[in-house]
Amino acid sequence: MGNGVKEGAVRLREDADTVLPSSVPSKTDHRQVLSSLFSGALAGALAKTAVAPLDRTKIIFQVSSKRFSAKEAFRLLYYTYLNEGFFSLWRGNSATMVRVVPYAAIQFSAHEEYKRILGRYYGFRGEALPPWPRLLAGALAGITAASLTYPLDLVRARMAVTPKEMYSNIFHVFIRISREEGLRTLYHGFTPTVLGVIPYAGLSFFTYETLKSLHREYSGHRQPHPFERMIFGACAGIIGQSASYPLDVVRRRMQTAGITGHPRTSIACTLSTIVREEGVVRGLYKGLSMNWLKGPIAVGISFTTFDLMQILLRRLQS
Q1: Which of 69, 189, 220, 226 allows an S-S link to 255, with CB 3.0 to 4.6 Å?
Q2: Could you give the angle at the alpha carbon of 214 between the alpha carbons of 226 and 10, nearest 5°?
Q3: How far is CA 306 from CA 15, 39, 153, 271, in A?
Q4: Cα(108)–Cα(106) distance, rounded to whole angstroms?
């Protein structure tokens, strides 16, 4: 607790300009929220577009019973390029953007708000939160964003694993699912998503904020360089995604059950089927090595873009 107080005091002294005092008018608070929403949206869009081909490949393996290997993954990328063209590697990315832009905007903005709320409650501020509230702020931000944007995630998964002839665009996916499978299908797989986002978002934000705090304490510099932010984000991505990956596989199977031939069942049944037919490691961690390649890149770009945009917008406003 003593270290937490010391960290809070250092943060108050060295970075007082990052959070405005409570006496600032509500107009400025609204401006902060809009700034977080815009920065988060841009961060999510850049990060996901950068790794979209790898993400699509990972989803294809997750929802099939094929054995994953790096060689097979890159072979799939190569044959997709040969047979369908270069831009087919980004198939489903428009649906990804429709989901990621609001998801990232809500998640980053919610995280800033939860940090402020928990900071007031514990008597700390922002990044100076003690470890458990820091973890809680990230988890709550992830739950908030996932709850509000889940149908878009399901649509993205459907478009990633189906040929172009099946769904012509995002709206076509919504129409066909609603007509042929029912509106409830749009939230099929929501429970494993929430269960997975708690460790993923919680650990990602916690790791990134903690590494920035340690950097500030031991380097003597108030702000890390962009490359250092990328490294911190990469570490956050590896830890968060590794912790939540089995639930990500279960979520994808449940989301695409109607079109891949897998039965539409509960989390427990889906989990047991994967383990029984494919094994624990080969089934529940299928594609994890691909995630270790794309995850650190995406999360590093996302966190770095958000921070740098926040700094830029604060300077423009001042």
Answers
A1: 189
A2: 105
A3: 17, 5, 21, 35
A4: 6
